[in-house]
Amino acid sequence: MCAMAGIYFHIPFCKRICSYCDFYRTAQLKELPEVVEKMCEEVRGRADYLPDKQLKTIYFGGGTPSLLSPEQLAQLLKTTRTHFDCSEVEETTLEANPDDLTAEYLQALRQMGINRLSIGIQSFDNDCLKLMNRRHTAEEAIAAVKAAQQAGFDNLTIDLIFGVPGFGGEKLERSIETALSLGVQHISAYLLTIEERTRFGRMVKKGELQEISDETAEAEYLLIHKRLTAAGMEHYEVSNYALPSFRARHNSHYWDATPYLGIGPGAHSFDGVSRQWNVASTTRYLQGEPPERELLGEEEMREEFLMTRLRTADGFSLDEAANRFGEEYRNRLEKAAQRLIQEGLLHEQAGHLRIPPEKLLLSDYVIGSMFDL
């Protein structure tokens, strides 16, 4: 019996494409009803994918899942509850845009059992929102959070983006303070990564936008870390902060190797020994193109172990590494860790290794160094 798993629904539809977004998404909203039907079919067809049919979490991500009508969400939930044991589900999350959250919609979400909202705000600065091509204002974002609280949601997370050129310093501080003033339980703060295929990527190429320096990125990261931890939030993963007992349970599956099933165009799945991913095309998904699969060998499993565990403030136990991959691997890890410990990039206590939360921005460097065993 494995740890209880999660199911993820990828809703790739957006009314408007944000300047920074490099995820698979589409503005072809006319396909949405047919895709929902196909997703229900996929749930039925892949009900045996997970080692254990008992779910702990359900997550609607995107894209913009709040574009789904209450009826479409209820259809997906009903299909899931028919084919999986949902009696132990602790967390059902919907990612939402602020301007979709009307009082009526919020009430419908509550009634169907959605108990956590992830509200994509990104900034409380209207000029920054305009640059990012977001379809809401700061005032609408604040109103949406308050409306969700009035509707009875007591597990809310909001997304912020830092590292936006021209919106650091006092502007970033004001966004952080506004976020904290709303009394949400969880905040995700992501460093802007400018990808070539995005509007921001094209602006950089034309010289219309200049990426911030690594030093500025680190300073903004530390500002967020200090403000949010001073407010009583735990910095438990590179980009995530939570009040006690409000860690994102579904997202934690990705970091502790719990199996999960991904449904929808572009969705990824993991069953403990292999990864699968659906085609990132609504057209080909609707045509029934099967997912691709990668069986993870021992080297990939070791890398996966390091990549996921060292993204979190919990880190990992050397005993666990030895139990999974052998004593020789443990010895190599201990040797590789020594220099990083001396540099202050790793902490070791009673055989447990972790990156200090204020250094998690450098996790890619630390993990890469541990790979070079």
TL;DR?
The chain has 373 residues and is an alpha/beta fold. 41% of the residues lie in helices and 19% in strands.
Q: What is Rg?
A: 21 Å
Query: On the 0-100 scale, what is the average pLDDT?
Result: 94
Q: How many DSSP helices?
A: 14
Q: How do the SSEs run, as a string of H and E?
A: EHEHEHEHHEHEHHEEHEEEHEHEHHEEH
Give the distance, in angstroms, between the N- and C-terminal Cα atoms.
Answer: 33 Å
Query: What fraction of residues sit in β-strands?
Result: 15-25%
Number of strands: 15
Pairing-aware structural class of the strands and helices?
A: alpha/beta
Describe this structure in words.
- The protein is α/β, with parallel strands linked by helices and about 375 residues long.
- The protein has 14 helices and 15 strands.
- It has helices at about 30-45, 70-85, 105-110, 125-130, 140-150, 170-180, 200-205, 215-230, 250-255, 280-285, 300-310, 320-325, 325-340, 365-370, and strands at about 5-10, 55-60, 90-95, 115-120, 155-160, 185-190, 235, 240, 260-265, 270, 275, 290-295, 315, 345-350, 350-355.
- Strand 7 (about 235) and strand 8 (about 240) form a beta hairpin.
- The longest helix is centred in the middle third of the chain and has 17 residues, at about 215-230.
Sequence-ordered SSE layout with sheet pairings:
Blueprint: E1 5-11, H1 32-45, E2 55-62, H2 70-83, E3 91-96, H3 103-111, E4 116-122, H4 126-131, H5 138-150, E5 156-162, H6 169-181, E6 186-191, H7 199-206, H8 214-230, E7 234-237, E8 240-242, H9 249-256, E9 260-263, E10 268-270, E11 274-277, H10 282-286, E12 292-295, H11 298-309, E13 316-317, H12 318-325, H13 327-342, E14 347-349, E15 352-354, H14 363-371
Parallel strand pairs: 1-2, 1-9, 2-3, 3-4, 4-5, 5-6
Antiparallel strand pairs: 6-8, 7-8, 10-11, 11-12, 13-15, 14-15
Helix pairs in contact: 1-2, 6-8, 12-13
